[in-house]
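seq as requested:
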Amino acid sequence: MSLAVAGSGGAGRRIGVGGLALAGLAAALLAGVVIGETALPPLTVLQVLANKVLGAGYALDPVDEGIIWNYRLTRAIVAAACGAGLAVSGVVLQALLRNALADPYVLGISAGASTGAVAVTIAGLGAGLLSLSFGAFIGAILAFGIVALLARAAGGGAGAAGAAQIVLAGIAGAQLFNALTALIIAKSANSDQARGIMFWLMGSLGGVRWPDVWLAVPVAAAGVLIVALHTRALDAFAFGSEAAASLGVPVRRVQAALIGTSAMITAVMVSMVGAIGFVGLVIPHAARFLVGPRHGRLIPASAFMGAVFLILADILSRVVIPGQVLPIGVVTALVGAPAFAAILVRGGRRL
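struct tokens:
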């Protein structure tokens, strides 16, 4: 009897926390639509949503309706999907590599995805047969493969030395692919293309529309679901791959599935909004501080916090300088770089 009551109480708490998280995400999305270069009343936003979703007949300014529905709402939704996906990718990489500094940006995966996307759009790689997202995916996989090979060649193994080798290999890989991206732009792009691409590479949500929503949301949701189905395996990897194998985890299959999922998420998001750094680094650590290291709680917490964080970062990018929209990657870097330094110093003190 008491066990049943305790179980129902735990389920009730989980439902309550889930409800609060959804309410917080809805509030962040509403703020992302209301706040911007021109402030719009929340009531107007709700009326536009009622018109579009429920078919209500509110009389509204067509300009305001277009700004809300086609620009700000899509921007906020893609920011949420991107933040959730990148944060969960960071959780996966930190668990599999047992490295507190691992994330798609630091390990060069974002740089590789950027190179693949630019190679398809500017250099015409694939002769029109490859999509932007697929080109970014190929670049992301290639970048991670090069980083892994370089770390192994440098003698990376278990422990702090191996973690340092992986980070150094990631930095080298990121620089390599950033140089390749710059080379492709210099060789194949005209001045207008080069200007637009350079702004996009720093992270930009200005061009996203509903077709991007229909791609970003399913990819992020599928990625989070795939990772959530491997929570026990990720917990086992906390003790190393050999310990995970002894616990019955199919190590190579799980590693391939989760790294492939992280690369897919990163590639799709980069192909839409450019390389946004530090989300996958900072958010998992903040979530781990709040809910602990167990991945059953860490994964949903990271997804929620990543979504809200990137929506708020996008709001800041639009309002911090009046009349000008900053690349969102600038905002995330201003937050992420000090956090990166703090994690690095904290990790060094443990050695």
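The first helix runs from residue 2 to 34.
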